[in-house]
Specification:
20 helices; mainly alpha
């Protein structure tokens, strides 16, 4: 029991220290893996390293590397520019074009923050030009990116699938993707309605502009950009259609593009999301250690004894929402799915429904200005609008923390009980 208590205390320390100090949760997790494994268990370095998720490392590195190549040579920007141009002269369509364009990188496999980092500056400029509420445009970027979070190509979906399959649990990848897409699109309609996107009344804080003003300059794709689009499509085809490892195929595509077009893609490797790689792999390594120690099973039994399965499921969704609002969604999912796995194995509720509820509860709260994507939106707002946008995202994020566990529990957990 002291070992299990120490393991859970370590998990609490990871989230508390990681959210109150500028320390990567993955680095902290690896340090605690060493301390707990060495002091309390006496594990060797090889035993401690056995829990490191090599498959997730390759997946995260490969996908973000390929996306970095596409960003460096301007392919993603060209795709965004072309898509935004479709709304030319139709101001009311701009939020939805932004939503759809933000979804594309995430559905193609990029982490959500990468797409938001690229699109947030453009979205803020479009908001000013088209007399649209900056908070609305920022939230449409965030939830557009979130709508692609659980695409079969996305790393978040891979984290959940891996965590479930490692524990002998089956889930519907289609349900996960479809439910997340539907939920975020529904939130998009609420956002547009709330902030007046369906009205023609201009925002008084924005400069005057005409609906017919050009929203972007559409140029042709260069040869290297065309090859990049083909490479991304190729990775999707071979991975989805033929079961080829996504991480390795993305790495191969990125290397080939850099070898063929060195001038246009120089420095693309710096776009690899090393902080996310460290975060996810570190937390998974620590959770794997807890599983070896038997702590995960002990926690599952303890949670199941707290009350009825439906009550426990709701509590887990609430914990996921509250914690993820101020921390990394990837890190939270990497920790909470294994914690919930023993409870799901008991069969009181459906594994797929529970996984979907946890996934949505942990990701729709990312609009808070404390998260990476929320902070990117606030940072790209103009100086005189920044506090206004910050307050809007803070209020919206708080609403998501309150409503997400309730709604996802009603939609996905209760019917599966």
């Amino acid at each position: 029991m002291p070992l299990h208590l120490a393991g859970i205390l370590g998990l609490i320390i990871i989230f508390v220290v990681g959210t109150t100090r500028s320390i990567n949760l993955g680095a902290l997790s690896l340090a605690l893996t060493f301390l707990v494994g060495t002091v309390l268990v006496g594990e060797t370095p090889r035993e401690m390293a056995s829990g490191f998720p090599v498959d997730l490392f390759v997946l995260l590195t490969g996908v973000t590397y390929l996306f970095g190549v596409a960003t460096k040579n301007g392919t993603v920007e060209r795709i965004v520019d072309r898509a935004v141009g479709l709304a030319r002269g139709r101001r009311s369509l701009v939020p939805w074009v932004v939503f759809a364009v933000a979804a594309f990188p995430a559905m193609a496999g990029a982490i959500g923050s990468a797409g938001v980092a690229l699109l947030a500056p453009l979205a803020m400029r479009l908001a000013e030009r088209c007399n649209l509420d900056r908070r609305m445009m920022g939230l449409m970027v965030v939830h557009g990116a979130a709508s692609g979070n659980f695409s079969p190509l996305n790393v978040l979906a891979a984290i959940i699938r891996q965590a479930m399959s490692d524990r002998g649990l089956e889930m519907s990848a289609g349900l996960l993707f479809g439910a997340n897409l539907f939920y975020n699109v529904a939130l998009g309609f609420i956002i547009v309605a709330w902030f007046g996107g369906f009205r023609r009344t201009p925002d008084p804080r924005a400069p005057e502009s005409s609906d017919g003003e050009a929203l972007s300059s559409n140029g042709r794709f260069s040869p290297d950009q065309l090859w990049t689009v083909a490479a991304i499509a190729g990775v999707a085809i071979v991975s989805l259609g033929f079961g080829v490892n996504i991480g390795f195929s993305a790495l191969t595509a990125g290397v080939l593009l850099q070898a063929i077009f060195p001038a246009q893609t120089q420095g693309a490797e710096r776009h690899i999301a090393w902080s996310v790689v460290l975060l996810v792999c570190g937390i998974v390594t620590y959770v794997s250690a807890l599983q070896r120690f038997g702590t995960i099973d002990a926690v599952g039994i303890g949670i199941a004894g707290l009350g009825t399965p439906l009550l426990v499921a709701f509590l887990l969704c609430t914990v996921a929402a509250v914690t993820s609002a101020v921390a990394s969604s990837a890190g939270i999912l990497g920790a909470i799915i294994p914690l919930a796995a023993p409870f799901m194995i008991q069969g009181g509720i459906g594994a797929s429904g529970m996984a979907v509820a946890l996934a949505l509860s942990a990701t729709v709260v990312d609009a808070t200005p404390f998260s990476t994507v929320g902070a990117l939106v606030v940072a790209n707002a103009s100086e005189d609008e920044r506090q206004h946008v910050y307050r809007g995202l803070l209020i919206w994020g708080f609403i998501m923390v309150i409503t997400a566990p309730v709604i996802t529990w009603l939609l996905f957990v209760l019917p599966s009980a």
